[in-house]
Specification:
The complex is a heterodimer of chains A (about 850) and B (about 140). With about 850 residues, chain A is mainly beta. Helix content of chain A is about 10%, strand content about 55%. Classes of the chains: A mainly beta (about 850), B alpha+beta (about 140).
């Protein structure tokens, strides 16, 4: 009995323990099962979101209009896309991010508009709620309603947006980018090949992406390159490119990458169009050649090469001082003799090569490299480019110091006709950057385009100068300041300048060469009210070169409901003309484009495109002449490495903000001179006087006076700077102090001005402790140097006798007033400090339709031009 | 004899009780040990799953990088919960963020880095969050 009882006890104990273990295991299993279920649910949700994220797609295009960025977003994906942010970058740095909060349903489009703090952004990105980032391409030039014919092909004229980008993208191309039509000479960015079919593309670049548009501005394809291209060339229907690591070819009409091969350090590439051969110079000396279509190597690593240029079926190469002639990557001929550069002109049966001797020599050969003649050049010239016309030829050369670019024209016999300076470094120092210039010769003309970059401290660079020249009979025919693109080919010549204005025309047809005309408008835009008073715009017809010819004037592309009349229908330039434009009640309010054309003997010599903006009620359009130099656009400029500037960032999640700190730079020894932040600003021609700049400054300098100075400097040209404002660093500006500096007479209107905020060492024994000062805007915690016309605004578009009054918006007090004269334009002087630089105001115009008219409250800046529609 | 036999009976009971007690104690210790280690294992497993769930809810997008010295990363939190960025690895250099950068869901924030070497295009950036998630990006403006 006893043992049985003991067995019962142990069974109970064992059972209890087992139960405990079971309960513990079950609870663990249940917990794990619950957590696992939640984990699986999370995983499913994650996968679902990733799936939706991967399905998101947006087609984006942006354009800049009146200080606003419009992003057209099309959602071709099957899922709704919620846009969270629009992010704008300038020069690779994010300047602002706007919370967009907009849902675009599948298959629909939406327009996002955001204000832009400064000019045209370099990159526009859209961030979706799911975390996708899409980059917007700049919108293609949109076709206007004006149509004409081009060699039998129906052509649509593009408007000009993003011309500089387009021009820059195509400068590397070797084919024609011009279309001519009666009434207009339209530079479109086309490469055409395979006559008579007109085929080609307009290209814009955005980082590693190239957008391809067709004739009407329709997006055709997007070429995704492995990296941002450093060189591009168009030819034989292909786009050849080089990046920092690859070289390859793409088909622009489909966007397909035909091939790409790893090849770094590319210095130059060129297409031998007739033979579909691509030549690449890499590493400063290695010449490669590839089949353009397949990428099959034809010639590998020919070392010692320093120069290569292709033209038609021929390519000239300078290798270890020898001149080699290639076609289809096969060496045809060679000759020795210390050559530096060479060009082939197969259509003239000529090879021209420069010899780097003292003095330099140019040698002319026939296509079998038999020497025809030899010409001696002025000493110290290095020939960079050369073109040949019927009766003369021209060479561009750079001097030893790389400060000046020279153009030399020669007669057919080789005698020097003229040597002239094309451009010299605008800031009077040697350039360290690259420059581009291209000479084209055809018939009796040679056209040249030239632009250059300069590098300064800290690797900063910008376009220092640009210009275009046309030469005839060995002399300058005319000059296009700020020319970005010049093309002379197939009997036509075209320029695009900085205003995106085009010039001239057919070369093969005599009248146009005899007289080159330009219509210069007072304004490119006219603002009218439907049913309102007529508006007049003045223009001037001037002769660029050649004898004046009687021209007839007419208006083109007038829509129904819009009338335009000219005060004269013909004349011998130069003369002034007035275009009067009136809109009927029925005309829908929007933008219209018309053109005034000057013709001689039925051939268009010049055209003046005008944009007419029609409103349905009296409207005041404000055009600001105030300009801002922001911190994002600054560069370091210094007479010595011991000066620099930096940005003192301020935390702001929405935009990059910073003060500018101009300082001594460790560890360089102090030397007399100055340096700091350099900005460039273009003051509009219509900016009224007096021009001022305003900013706040402070420092914590505690050293002796007479050692350092704070300065605001303006570049006067010829290497000279003038201090518009200076004060000793040992002033008492320990906290922010406002400065208003008069810049009237120092800044040039209608031109680029250079402004520098600098610290100057005025004593050799200056101590470096505390040698810095900071600057920011008087209105916000950011560096914005406002350049404005103090206490003055201009009103335009008025009828004689109409009175314009400017009132303060807060208390209605009168700030300034004036009555319009017969020209409909009046300058309104405001009370002292009322627009310094800006104020919240409203404007009244009396009478309008017999009663006073009042605008909504608006922020007016000093120098604003108020254009009234009537 | 009786006395002896009674003593013998007592020691048997005591022996049985002691044996029972020892067995009980031993088994209890083993059972408790087992349940404790089981609980610990379960807790560890559950924690790992919760961390993973938290990581799945975290999503960071690098919108843009202002390259060069003193680069700024523009990070967007596309996830469902707030993200605390505690560390950024730039070109192999670890940068601890003190305090961590807190990103609310659906917000874009700049993160300024003071790395000793400049951030160039193509540089690899590793971003570590307080939940242990690691996001890998390539720097591009």
């Amino acid at each position: 009995m006893r043992p049985a009882r003991r067995a019962g006890v142990s069974s109970v104990v064992g059972g209890l323990i087992l139960t405990l273990v079971f309960i513990s295991m079950m609870s663990a299993l249940l917990t794990i099962e619950r957590e696992h279920r939640e984990y699986v649910a999370s995983l499913r949700q994650f996968q679902q979101e990733e799936l939706l994220k991967s399905r998101e797609d947006l087609r984006l295009a942006y354009r800049v209009s009146d200080g606003t960025l419009m992003v057209e977003a099309e959602n071709p994906s099957p899922v709704a896309v919620e846009v969270s942010y629009v992010v704008l970058s300038y020069e690779g740095r994010v300047a602002s991010a706007f919370n967009a909060s907009c849902v675009i349903p599948p298959g629909l489009s939406s327009t996002l508009s955001v204000p832009i703090p400064q000019g045209r952004p370099s990159s526009v990105k859209v961030v979706t709620r799911r975390g996708n980032v899409f980059e917007a391409a700049e919108e293609a030039p949109r076709p206007s309603s004006a149509r004409s014919s081009l060699d039998g092909v129906e052509a649509v004229w593009p408007e000009y947006s993003g011309v500089q980008e387009c021009a820059a993208a195509l400068l590397a191309a070797d084919e024609l980018f011009i279309a001519s039509a009666p009434g207009h000479l339209v530079p479109v960015y086309w490469s055409y090949y395979g006559e008579p079919r007109l085929a080609g593309w307009q290209l814009t670049t955005a980082g590693a992406r190239i957008n391809v548009y067709d004739w009407g501005g329709r997006h055709l394809a997007r070429v995704e390159l492995p990296e941002e291209p450093t060189f591009m060339a168009l030819g034989a229907g292909c786009l050849a490119f080089a990046t920092s690591r690859y070289v390859g070819v793409a088909n622009p009409s489909t966007g397909n990458l035909l091939w790409a091969k790893p090849l770094g350090s590319v210095n130059y590439l060129d297409i031998e169009g007739n033979t579909e051969t691509l030549y690449v110079l890499s590493g400063g000396q290695y010449l490669h050649a590839f089949n353009l279509r397949t990428g099959a190597p034809l010639l590998i690593d020919v070392g010692g090469c320093s120069f290569v240029r292709s033209s038609g079926p021929l390519t000239v190469v300078v290798r270890s001082g020898s001149l080699l002639l290639y076609s289809r990557a096969v060496e045809l001929n060679r000759t020795g003799g210390g050559y530096y550069s060479a060009w082939a002109f197969p259509e003239r049966g000529l090879i021209v090569a420069s010899v780097a001797s003292s003095p330099p020599i140019l040698r002319f050969f026939d296509l079998s490299l038999s020497l025809l003649k030899e010409v001696r050049l002025p000493t110290g010239f290095y020939v960079e480019d050369l073109a040949v016309a019927n009766s003369f030829w021209a060479a561009v050369a750079e001097d030893d110091a790389r400060k000046t670019l020279w153009l030399t024209t020669f007669g057919a016999d080789g005698r020097v006709i003229e040597v002239q300076t094309l451009a010299s470094s605008p800031l009077g120092i040697a350039r360290h950057g690259s420059s581009q210039r291209m000479l084209r010769g055809e018939g009796d003309l040679i056209a040249l385009e030239c632009y250059s970059w300069a590098n300064y401290w800290k690797g900063a660079s910008w376009t220092a100068y640009s210009g275009g020249w046309v030469l005839k009979d060995g002399g300058l025919a005319f000059k296009v300041p700020g020319c970005f693109m010049a093309r002379l080919s197939r009997g036509r010549l075209a320029f695009i300048d900085q205003r995106a204005q085009l010039s001239l025309t057919r070369i093969a047809e005599a009248p146009l060469l005899d007289c080159c005309l330009e219509l210069l408008p007072r304004a490119n835009e006219v603002y009218v009210r439907a049913g309102g008073p007529p508006k007049a715009v003045e223009a001037e017809a001037v002769v660029r070169y050649g004898p004046p010819t009687n021209v007839n004037l007419r208006v083109m592309s007038l829509p129904e409901g819009l009338s335009a009349s000219l005060d004269k229908s013909s004349g011998v330039p130069p003369f002034r003309l007035t275009v009067t434009i009136e809109a009927s009640h029925e005309l829908p309010p929007r933008e219209y484009r018309i053109a005034i054309v000057a013709e001689a003997d039925g051939v268009a010599l010049a055209s003046l495109p005008l944009t007419v903006k029609v409103y349905d009620r009296p409207t005041l359009i404000v055009k600001s002449t105030c300009r801002i130099v922001g911190h994002a656009s600054l560069q370091t400029y210094a007479t010595s490495p011991c000066f620099t500037y930096s940005l003192h960032p301020i935390f702001d999640p929405w935009r990059a903000r910073a003060f500018v700190n101009v300082s001594y730079r460790h560890p360089h020894p102090v030397s007399l001179g100055w340096g700091g932040a350099l900005g460039e600003v273009t003051i509009p021609l219509e900016a009224p006087g007096p021009l001022y700049a305003c900013f706040l400054h402070r420092d914590l300098y505690g050293g002796p006076s007479g050692k350092w100075e704070k300065r605001l400097l303006i570049y006067e040209g010829g290497g000279t700077w003038r201090a518009a404002w200076s004060t000793d660093l040992a002033d008492d500006a320990q906290s922010w102090r406002a400065e208003r500096v008069s810049l009237e007479g120092l800044l040039k209107r209608g031109a680029v001005n250079y402004v520098a905020l600098a610290i100057a060492a005025v004593s050799g024994d200056a101590q470096v402790d505390g040698a810095w000062w900071e600057a920011r805007s008087p209105m916000e915690d950011d560096f914005q140097l406002y350049i404005y016309s103090r206490d003055v605004v201009v009103a335009e578009g008025l009828a004689e006798g109409q009175v314009v009054q400017v009132h303060r918006a807060d208390d209605g007090s009168l700030v300034g007033q004036a009555a319009a004269g017969p020209e409909g334009r009046v300058v309104i002087r405001c009370g002292d400090g009322q627009l310094d630089p800006c104020g919240r105001c409203f404007v009244t115009v009396t009478p309008v339709d017999g009663a006073p008219w009042q605008s909504a409250p608006l922020t007016l800046y000093g120098g604003d031009v108020l254009i009234f529609t009537g | 004899m009786r006395l002896c036999s009674r003593r013998r009976g007592v020691s048997e009971v005591v022996g049985a009780l002691m044996l029972t007690f020892v067995t009980l104690a031993f088994m209890s210790i083993i059972a408790l040990n087992f349940t404790a280690s089981s609980r610990e294992l379960t807790a560890g497993y559950v924690d790992a799953m919760r961390r993973d769930r938290g990581s799945l809810a975290e999503s960071l997008t690098l919108v843009s990088v202002d390259l060069g010295d003193g680069a700024t990363l523009w990070l967007y939190n596309a996830g469902r919960q707030r993200v605390e960025v505690v560390e950024v690895d730039v070109n192999g250099e670890r940068l601890q963020l003190l305090p961590p950068l807190v990103l609310e869901p659906g917000r874009l924030s700049p993160l300024r880095l003071n790395a000793s070497s400049p951030i160039l295009q193509g540089s690899t950036l590793l971003i570590r969050t307080s939940m242990g998630s690691v996001f890998r990006f390539e720097a591009s403006p």
